[in-house]
């Protein structure tokens, strides 16, 4: 502004010393040009100032989120992490912290793959919904209708509608409860060992995580696709969306650039043996780096995999028989709160979290991806940390009841 005042004074001086008409005309012409110059300079300075303020505000919020994540990392003693924030599906910030391997002090980088465990369900359930749409099938059809030749399945399983499997409300006996976990040797092994076990609840009455249900989801995907599950995912998703390093496999598989996962056992930090087999790959087993997970969620949000109506259906919390809502939609975790915030996504093995946030009347959607390789002190869950990050971009997330 000081420079502008000097220019104005110079204009006045020019005008006062113009003695004849020619000089007056010349002075007036010069005055107009200089005023035009002032306007241009003022406009430019205003734009630069606004842009500077915008950049400062933007940098400030990212610095705040980084500081928050660092505090959480220190207090929870997280070994290493990658996190990313997307606004309306576009990446606005991402950061890596800590170690990919603590024994050898290997720094965390963005090219590291994570065993994302149950985040795998987002991929498999979305793939299934796409197949259903393309073949004009419905989640109201039963397992028996999808798999008419599988007479080895118990009749109580065959009678279940697909919607119950996807919403974790089937009540079907769960392999985890019987310590078969997620690396059984075959489908037959699971069926043989689980077919006579009682249901955990009456179908449709309780929302309870269930891995056995997603074994059936995988079998149905293979039936509809006419190909092996891994082959279908590779061709239709990994190759199509340039997820060039994504793959399925447990901790025994040699996976280049995969982080080592950790958990606390008693007072000791140990390797987390996230073991998976083909039988359970629709439930868990995906290895993926954050940049490829970003590409996939962007494809979802851009409706390249499912259309808007399908997403709205999948993301709506499933109603139980008593009209209460469960914790899942049709394959994704699904929550709706009184402050109009809606959250969808999934956690993975208690060490990772992907959540997508929407709010009625709010101008933007927010997606936060938090991938870690474990911690010593999960007094706050990865979902809690994810929501803490989201709160910087959608105020009110931390006020959910």
Short précis:
The chain has 401 residues and is of the alpha+beta class.
User: Taking all residues together, what is the mean pLDDT?
Assistant: 90
What oligomeric arrangement do these chains adopt?
Answer: single chain
Class computed from helices, strands and strand pairing: alpha+beta
Name of the CATH class of the largest domain:
Alpha Beta
Number of helices: 12
Structurally, the number of domains stands at: 2
Distance N to C terminus: 51 Å
The third-level CATH topology of the largest domain is: Beta-lactamase
Strand order in the largest sheet: 3-2-1-12-11-10-9
Sheet-strand content, in percent, reads: 15-25%
Helix content: 25-40%
Shape field: globular
Task: Describe the fold and architecture.
- It is a single chain.
- Residues 1-29 and 37-54 have low confidence and may be disordered.
- The chain folds into two domains: 2-49; 77-399, DD-peptidase/beta-lactamase superfamily (Beta-lactamase, 3-Layer(aba) Sandwich).
- The strands form three sheets. Strands 3-2-1-12-11-10-9 form a seven-stranded antiparallel β-sheet, sandwiched between helices.
- It is of the alpha+beta class and 401 residues long.
- β2 and β3 form a beta hairpin.
- The chain is globular, with a radius of gyration of 28 Å.
- It contains twelve helices and twelve strands.
